[in-house]
Amino acid sequence: MITLHVELAARRYPIYIGSGLLARMPAWPEELTRAKRAAVVSNAVVAPLYLARLTQALLAQGMAATAVILPDGEAHKDWASLSAIYDHLLTQRCDRTTPIVALGGGVVGDLAGFAAATYQRGVPFVQVPTTLLAMVDSSVGGKTGINHALGKNMIGAFWQPRMVIIDTDTLTTLPDRELSAGLAEVIKYGLIRDAAFFAWLEGNIEALLARDAAALAYAIERSCRNKAEVVAADELETAKEGGRALLNLGHTFGHAIETGLGYGEWLHGEAVAAGIVMAAELSRRLGWLTEIEVARIRRVLERARLPTSGPPLGAARYLELMGRDKKVLAGRLRLVLLRAIGEAVTWAEAPMEEIARAIESCSG
């Protein structure tokens, strides 16, 4: 088992990474177990696979489990699902000491985390991610929330988990498409701040797709280490330049794809992959990346079985949707772009016509 820590100003919390952790779960701190029970949030796909195992692990910690099972998919990351969690917590008379445990992918984690942030003004929260994307991205850092018809993740809260437990064995049941979607976020870390990791990924994409255990464990650890360092330096994404916002490479373009098509048509990682190519192309047009570097980025995404062009929504529609993004400040669209592979920047000076050209050249 590998143990990392997210070092925050007020406290720190562990990320445990290993094989079989649902069966040999690390000891929980007394502050989590004093309630003698936990409320587990999962979905209709994950619960039949892993809920019983998690329940047994909780019993070994001296805790009973009550569970709410949500429908699967991004389309259900909404008020109705959030309300179902609240209904369950209230019906079961969960109190401020009852930890909420997210068992599932990013949608489950975001919903459960938002419920934890707001139920009785905040209860303890534990992440047990079961998808690659959730393991390397959404389970770490404390961003929670739901989608709105007009924008993705526009309603939410920062609420850090008390611990993150990553059982890499759960990836054996992950569909191939979702494994590839998770690789988009893994590749992102190499692009924004870890050029050596990007080079490693170029040499190991096929091993990751083949679910080589050692390769996956290394990629998850390296990704979590990168994210933990970024979050520790800028927990609430308040840095004027760079900081936590750099984790959003490709996301402003990608969120436009998800919102424009309807949530769930493309997986989040698929939309991010196409968005990364758009950001890379815009970076080239600004004179920062070479054509060879953009080709390297495209190629590694293609080898990960990810899309490298977005749907033909039209540049005007992309820009309309991007204009509602959380990264818009004082009416200016801030994008995460690449000065080089391994060096990202936040940039609000890109001409709109160049953004439109980059979108048009990377969609359709």
As laid out across the biggest beta sheet, the strand order is 1-2-9-6-5-3-4
Mind telling me the CATH superfamily name of the largest domain? Answer: Dehydroquinate synthase-like - alpha domain
Examine the coordinates and then state which fold CATH places here, giving the name of the CATH topology of the largest domain. Dehydroquinate synthase-like, alpha domain
Q: Based on DSSP secondary structure assignment, what is the total number of beta strands?
A: 13
The total tally of domains equals 2
Helix-residue proportion: 40-55%
| CATH C-level of the largest domain | Mainly Alpha
CATH architecture of the largest domain: Up-down Bundle
Question: What string gives the helices and strands in order?
Answer: EEHEHEHEHEHEEEHHHHHHHEEEEH
**What fraction of residues sit in β-strands?**
15-25%
Computed CA radius of gyration, to the nearest angstrom: 20 Å
Q: What would a concise description of this structure say?
A:
By secondary structure, this protein is of the alpha/beta class. It has helices spanning 30-33, 47-60, 79-91, 106-118, 132-138, 176-193, 195-209, 213-233, 251-261, 268-285, 291-303, 315-322, 352-361; strands spanning 2-7, 12-18, 37-43, 64-70, 100-104, 125-129, 143-148, 151-158, 163-167, 328-329, 332-333, 335-340, 343-347. Strand 1 (2-7) and strand 2 form a beta hairpin.
